[in-house]
Structure formats: structure tokens, C-alpha cells
Amino acid sequence: MPRLPGALRRLARETGGLAAMEFAMVVPLMALLMLGTLEVSQAYVAHRKLERITASVADLIARETSPTATTINQILDVAEVLIVPYAAERLSITATYISDIDGKRTTEWQCWNGIGTQAAAPAALPAGVLEPNGRLIVVAASYQHETGVTKLVVREPIPLAGTYYAKLRQLTFTGPKPSGAGCS
Q1: Phi, psi at residue 95, to the nearest 5°?
Q2: What region, left, alpha or beta, does residue 178 occupy, with left being phi > 0 and alpha being psi -120 to 50 degrees?
């Protein structure tokens, strides 16, 4: 028994290897912090890209004077190019044409790129977005963001979503409503 207090005093005075032990304790925490920061920044960049894509698609459709299902689907295909370097097969994008004629709000048509679950246009539009007797393109997109870290830690993709509203550049679309592949 008398030997124990002396051994504890010698252990308390011993400083050899202390830096290595502190390093071993701090490195996992720093690595986790670094990976977390990297993951959050990648998700932020992917979300910003998704927002730019919805704005670009809405703007391209709003410029059309007589869109067909082929034209709309080609514009939706542009979104799959714009998402690079992220995986296009995780991008779902829907374009919806909404009109308000004499106070009656109508969904004229809707086209979807056919990937994943269809991104739905919001049920209620924000106040002031659709003016009386106005016409609007609503582009809603969703993206399932996944990296190696999310596969290991979260085990499922991080859902990202974006919506953009664009008024028609022309007074109205002319011609028949788009129908066919991806459009209804």
C-alpha cells in the first residue's frame, strides 16, 4: 500500500509522451469537425446550384411563345446538364404553367423530367406572385444530395429543394398545350 502514493506522484511528474497523448485525443475531433464542415459546404453549394437551375429553367420556358412537349422536355434536359458535377439521376424537376383568368386560377399544364419522385408545385402561391389575369411559370426541383460521408454517417441522401416563379415574357402562350412524354 505505501508504494501506491509514490507511484502516483512519479506518474504525475512524468511528461514524456504527453504531447502524443493530447494529439491522439484531439485529432479525431478535428477530423470530424473538418469533414462536417466540408459536408455542409458541399450541401450548400449543391443547393445554390439547384436554385440557379430552377431560375434558368423557368426563364427559358417563360421566353417561349408556343411551347410543345418536346421544347419543354428539351429545356428540362438542360437542367440535367447544369447540375454537373452532381449526379443528374438524383434531380427531379417539374415545370407548371398557371394562369389566373377573371379570378379563376388554373393549372394549364405541367411537365416533369421523369426522374425520381415528381417535384410538386406549391399548393399555395406566395401573395402577389400571380397577378389578376396573369400567367406564371413555376419550376420546382428536388435533389437527393449524397457523398461518401453522408453514406457513412447519415446513411441516406440529404433532400434539397428549390422553387422559382417566372412571369411570361409574352402576354400568353399560343398554340396547343404541351402533351406527351412527361407533360400533362
Answers
A1: -110, 135
A2: beta
By C-alpha distance, which of 99, 110, 49, 125 is closest to 76?
Answer: 110
Which pLDDT tens digit goes with each residue over 127-160? 888 888 888 899 999 999 888 777 777 788 889 9
Residue with grid cell 399548393, as numbered in its chain? 123
Q: How many CB atoms lie within 10 A of CB 57?
A: 26
pLDDT in tens, 112-132: 888 877 766 667 788 888 888
Alpha-carbon Rg for the chain, nearest whole angstrom, is 27
For residue 3, which phi and psi values (nearest 5 degrees)?
-75, -30
Cell 394562369, residue located: 99
Crossing angle for the helix pair 18-63 and 69-82, to the nearest 10 degrees: 160
86 contacts: CB under 8 Å, gap ≥ 6: 46, 49, 143, 145
Pairing type for strands 135-145 and 158-167 reads antiparallel
How far is Cα 158 from Cα 106, in angstroms, rounded to an integer? 33
HSE value, Cβ hemisphere, 13 Å, CA-based, for 7: 4
